[in-house]
Amino acid sequence: MRKNKIFSIVLIAFTFGILGALMPSTTVKARTMDIDTSQYEPTGNPNVSYPQISIRTDRAPERTNIAEIVKLADEAAAKYPIGDSAHRSKAVTKRLISYFGSGSLGHAWIVIFHSNKPGDYTSYGFHEVFGWVKNGSSYFTDDSAGRKFAVEKTLPLGDDKTSCENIEKTIMPHLSEESVAIARMMGVYVFWPSRGAYSPIGNCAWAAGNLWNAVTGDNLNFEQEFDGAAHASDWGMPFLNGVTKIADPGMVAESIAK
Questions:
Q1: Disulfide engineering: 255 pairs with which of 39, 56, 221, 236, CB 3.0-4.6 Å?
Q2: What do you get for the CA distance between the two ends of the chain, in Å?
Q3: What is the pLDDT of residues 100-129, one digit of tens each?
């Protein structure tokens, strides 16, 4: 039963990847982001006491050029008449999901190292289709300690067991509810509400950044300014009038590197 479920999940993700590759929306490209996988610390940062918590990203320290993403969305919306909010919003969401979920913007994830022993860690990541994943190490959901990265921020963690319980019983459920609400506003299909829902606004950097700040009390800036109100009407997304920031793995990297 469990094997069949895992196979179904993998098949769904694979199917979405193939469909995304075939969609006309993928023919329009934004600048390729600088993905850096030069760092490798499978047992954590030896300069920080254990247990410890790390936020990692494979993006080089440079924020994403939002203007390029806006151009993708504008081109998607322009295929439908002004005023056709339903089709324009669907087209924009489809284009942005394809781009954000493709890995082009990089990834951000959380790893808790319980000790310096190999494999003694717990990881948390947020992915398209899957939502929250604990100890992900597959091709589709790799948040493992062995995944190479560009930059990280690591802090000592007083009680790792209590922290993990707090993450899984309090922080993740709260963020899941919020991400589902965001996804539904954008018209993104929600596979498993309890796991949350990945969307262009509720993306991996949004999840990792919020989780990191909630656990550590840090104030890491993982978002950059975004004038949602300037695009709400054109994209047929009135909720964007209240959106002033957007999470970005590049912003996570830039903030860590400062």
A1: 221
A2: 48
A3: 877 788 999 999 999 999 999 999 999 999
